[in-house]
Amino acid sequence: MTGQWRRERDRESDRRPALPIWPFEVSNGEFVPLPPSRRDRVVTQQVLDRLALTADRTNTDRRRFLTRAGAVAASLTVFNACASGREGAIPPPSSSVRSTTSSPTTTTTTPPPTTSTDPGGEYVVPEPEDEEACVQELGDQGEFIFDIHTHHVMPDGVWRENAPRIEQMINRLAPAGCQEGDRLECLNRVSYITNMFLGSDTTIALLSDVPNSGPDDAPIPFDAKVGTAELMEAITVAGQQRVLIHDVIAPNFGEIERRIEEMAISAATDRVSAFKVYTAWGPDSQGFSLADPAVGIPVIEQARSLGVNVLCAHKGLPLLEFDRRFNGPEDICQVAAMYPDMDFIVYHGAFERETTERAYDPSRTATGINSLIKAMDDYGIPVNGNVHAELGTTWRETMRDPTQAAHVLGKLLSRLGDDNVMWGTDAIWLGSPQAQIMAFRSFEITQAFQETHGYPALTPERKAKILGLNAARIFGVDPTAITCGIDTDLLSSSKGELEVLVDDGLVPSPYEPVGFMTRREMMAWASSLRQPWAPV
């Protein structure tokens, strides 16, 4: 493992610091990030200053401090301070924290006093200088965490020849510290297990894939997903499952009869937890509707007949060359009304980063979470019905803006229901999900937003549902059995070994994000493409 990540320590001082949470957009490869705004640059500098100050106060090497829970807490205190939205209205680090409870360690930041706009969310975190408290408050709380949106690749697959554009995109998602000759080896099965189950508190994961038309152009074909699941079962007590599987299907490629037959073949393995579609993706950039009687309905009928009663669809976050006509959630809500005995999961919750999430406005429902709420209203989908939302990339992109994050979670919980919002991260495209987990644990919707917008409080019970219990119910997973199947001694010792490797600079911090870090990087990839994204 260390061969993948060995760094030249004498050059590290010249490298960009690996912040635990970047304060500007980091792409998962599915969109072109916006250039950092003036506010982004101000916030980034404040994060760097706060991290440096805390490291100096604790007499800790600054780069080593970046691998600590205190670095996450320090970043979140700055996000709190900047949550008012006024550019530059950020108090200095020394005055950025105040006690919010009788405890001497639990703190949150005071928003800048120079604005009349109060933030809608806040992170309640310990003093970043108190590493023990940060680990206790932000670290493992014993929750059952079910990440229903994860990825890795098989570097030796034929997809690299058949889908060169996908290969180029994924190559750029490899971490900056990857020292392998083949960068995709840093996104392989071993890296997946390391990042998901040693580098984070994730209990169980659902393994997905990018858009593809079958095993010949899939970065992780169905059989390879089964291999990953079996490997994890081999290292658990009594072979408990810790990796479940999506089967990604593209019914608008080729003959629909062939796609239907492939669904039956994969379902016969008893390994398909859900089928997943990318409705906006297709040949010649032509998508399809789930309600199309020639393409979408046969897929739903087949899934239902096979006993796979969960259908997932990517909605929002339009990828390059996506057919925007079919990227919204209207069709999935339409078929949800037609098939009330099935469950439909809207991946990303229909979030689009071009749409700033605010309180629901019925006059602004073309995109974003508002479009999902409208579609549910139009088709009479009840609260806690059979339409669910997943938070992959959505939480990562909004967590740096507590007010927008409060609107995202508040709207989803209010309209979809406490039982229908599910945790997902898009890992390992964005590195280990640990920093996202820690931020979510500490996040609260303010009392003012609860009263003004009718949003529910993020109680420990609601957080536990989102982090895993909701998905466990839908996917038929027993949280107690899964948890009891984990060798806690082995897991603890393995995590300890990983921490030593991180300290020695031989592997990256689990908090270090990967992906297209800048708009320039994403545009460089896009401008180099010479073939369509979809296979011919």
Task: Give a brief rundown of this model.
The strands form three sheets. This protein has an eight-stranded parallel beta sheet. A three-stranded antiparallel beta sheet has the order 1-2-4. With 536 residues, the protein is α/β, with parallel strands linked by helices.
List keywords for this structure.
single chain; 536 residues; alpha/beta; 8-stranded parallel β-sheet; 21 helices; 13 strands; globular
Structure description:
With 536 residues, the chain is of the alpha/beta class. It contains 21 helices and 13 strands. The chain has helices spanning 2-5, 38-57, 62-65, 69-81, 131-138, 159-162, 164-171, 189-198, 222-234, 256-267, 296-305, 330-338, 368-378, 394-398, 402-415, 434-442, 447-453, 460-474, 479-484, 488-503, 519-528; strands at residues 98-99, 106-108, 121-123, 125-126, 146-150, 204-207, 243-248, 272-277, 310-314, 343-347, 387-390, 421-422, 443-445. Helix 2 packs across helix 4 and helix 10 (256-267) packs parallel to helix 11. The two termini are 37 Å apart.
